Every structure is written in C-alpha cells, then in structure tokens.
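Anyone have tokens for 2-succinylbenzoate--CoA ligase? Sequence:
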Amino acid sequence: MSMLNSLSDLATQPAVVAHFANQTQQFTGTELLQEINKVAEIFANSDADAIAFQLDNTPAWLVLDAATSVANKVAIPIAHFFSQQQTQYVLAQCGAQLFISDMPRLSLGAHTLSITLFDHYTLYIYQLNVKEPIRYFKGTQKITFTSGSTGEPKGVCLSTHSQMQVAQSLCEQIGISKPTHLCLLPLPVLLENIAGIYAPLLSGGCVHLMPLNELGFVGSGLKNPEKLISAIDSVKPNTLILVPELLTCLIAFAKQGWQPPKSLQFIAVGGALVSDALIATARELNLPVYQGYGLSEAASVVSLNTPKNDDLKSAGTVLPHIQTKIEKGQLYIKGELFLGYLNQAPHNPNNWYATGDLVTQHGNKLFIKGRLKNLIITSMGRNVSAEWPESLILSQSAIVQAVVFGEGKPFLTAIIYAIPELSDQQLSEHMKFINQQLPDYAQVKKWHRLAQPLSVQQGLLTTNNRPKRQAISQQFNLIFEQFYRLGEVIHD
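Reply: yep, here.
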C-alpha cells in the first residue's frame, strides 16, 4: 500500500498529465520516480529534518511530496493561496529548515539552490534559520495546516500509514478501476492530496494537473468559472472532488445548458454540509454527486456516500478503518488518526477524538447536522445548527454564500450573497419556500443581501472559504441591531 509502488506499476503508462498554456505533457510512473529520486537525493544530503514547500498544482508538487517521504523528511505543504502573513506564521511554527517555491521569494533573500524538474518546472530552495529545533512526533511524515477559524493555521501531524490507509479505503469504497481524475482543489488541501492523487494512483489511474489560474482561480476564490468548465470539458475526467461552492457553479452552468461530460462517474463533495435537495438537483443535471465527510485529524475522509450503497441524504458509510460513537449528538472517532497537533501533546491512539460535529448515525451511515460550535440557542431555548437552514438556502445555485445568526435572539437572521442575475423578488420567494420546510424556530425571518461576496481578504472567511462567524457578526453589527428593531428586510 504505497504510492511509490503504484507508480512502479504505472511504469510505462501515463500517471500524471500536466496542462499548461494550452499544452499537455504526459509523465509515466517511471519518469515520475526518476524525478522523485533525484530530489530525494538532494533532501537526503541536507541536514534539514523538515521541508516546507509552496507550489502551484503541477507535477513538481507531487514530486516534492513523494521525495520527502523517500528521504525520510517531514513534508510541510503550504497552500498557494495563503497570505504572506499566514505563510510566515506557518514557517515560524513548523521548524522547517528548507523552503521551496516555484517563484523567487525576495523576502527570503537569495535562494541557495535551484532545480528544474521535467525540463520545465524551476524550483527555488531557500535555507531558513530556525531559532529552536522542533521535536516532531515519531512517524510524522506530513504536517498539514488547517486554516482554522482564526488567521493562525493549526498544524496536524500525520504518518504515511494514516494517509495511505485512507487512500486505500477510498479505492475500495469508490471501486473505479484506473480512473481519470482532474484535480480542481489546491494540492495542499488534504482532501485533494489524499483522495485526488494517492487514491487514483493506487487504483492504477491517471491524475490531471492544471495551474490554479488556468482553472479560473484568483487567490482562494473562483473568479473565472468558465475556465473551470472548459477544463472539465477538455479532460473528460471520471472523477472530481468539489467543495459546495464549486458544486453550485457546475449546477448553474448545467442549468444554462452545459452538458457535463458523459465520462463523469463519481463526483465527491465535501468541506461543508450540503443539502440533499442540491445533490438531487445535481444528479438530475447529469452530475453524479455523492457527499462525504472528513477532517484533517482523520487524514481527510471519515465517510463517503457511493453508488454501491447510496443514500442521498447521508454523508455515506464510515471507512472500514475508523470506529465511531456518538455522545450528546457529537461524533467521536478512533483508529488510524493524526499523531497530534504540532507543538502540543501527542494524540493517544487509544483515546476517542471529539470531532466537534453534530451527527446522527443509522447503521454505518453518517448524517451530518452541523458543527457543535455553530449551534445556535435562541432566546426561546431552541437549539438550531446554523448549517441546517444555511444548507437549504444554498440549495438555490444562484446563492453563493449564506451565514445564519441568532444566538440569544427571538428569531434567526442571515447574511446572503447571490449572483446579480437573481432578483430580490426571486430571493424573497426562495426564502419563503425554504422557511416552509423549517419549523418556526429555525426559520430565517430577516436577511441582508450583500452587493459583494464575503472574502478571505476581508478577514470574513477562512482560507477554505468557511465563514468566520464572529468576524462577520462584528462587521455587520449595525445591520443585526436593525434586524431586531425594524420590521422590514434590509438590502445594501
């Protein structure tokens, strides 16, 4: 159960296809292994224990990720869209002695070495001064930094075994042999790293990589969705991984007449609660969407819905290597999990890990209700998970963002961003329709429509586009005060 073994099995077959500037280049398993060993030798001759890297979605990223494992070094992939402040924070926390980038970093001074992979990708290697060496947990192969709800990412330490265990379980659960997978999420996002690279390669498949700007991304946001659709049409993949925002994008295009490639067999969606109504809409439009659930502490995926055991309302069957229990509505997991948080106490593998997620479980299937910390208790003492009405509001693909509030208040309110093509009247009708599906205490009585979406740059979203509820509440404090004084819906 090794990615390197899978590359050996793909010795003469295309394992990775790189797309750049209207060109494509195929790399066999043998060609990838040659570059991995070349870089691993450089790492092995270095005194560095840990190596941080920040690259675009290219084969060079895969090479660095694998080479750290071959050289027995700790890999610290940093998201390409992290701000300079976040990147500096990660580098200060992680103890990496080397930092590798696909562009010169003037703030780090002169690079000590540059290497070119596949005669195309030039990488710049910087020596970092580490004030105090970090003691990593035994077996740490990767430290993935979650964006968190604050601006300071948290380092989750993972072993090779935990990552490959998830990848292998996914291969068995999904059951598609030799899949063609197109990576749409940044590779440092653990879900794409494990489920989008390791799992397809273990299944004898081929991974297609494209720079994020050619997929339509600017920073962490999708600014040119036409490019994303064009990439899917061009590659004709069998599998994709989406976050809810990308799912709503695909649905919007399909409603406008776009025909998804018939090659698509399986689209996993995760990262936030998705309503079953939205998934049903996607399937009606020939998008074979299946919801999953996971977290970095479990090396990405905990459960996944699949065609073999489909339940549209669920986040699927728990992967076989994970144990679960529920206490007071909260999910606890045990098994091959993370080793601990960087610079904190280790995680005891015999202990249950509290996920912070509210779920119900029927048989071995999970039904996600929302985050424990996003539980709203109204002034009438009613408990409402914010994600419940939010997921229903977002079932309209023209609505891109919805954040619900109401802690200690007599009714719920929301901040909403919808594309301009959706009129205020249509939005009002949609909200009436949604409220009809909710009990009175969970209905969103008033909302504020934004002229511009919430963004990471404003400090209102995490880097994986989850709302920073406290920051949003403070930003729109005057609006919320008006909600509970005035009778009408307010738009900006």
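Residues 435 and 443 are 5 Å apart (CA to CA).
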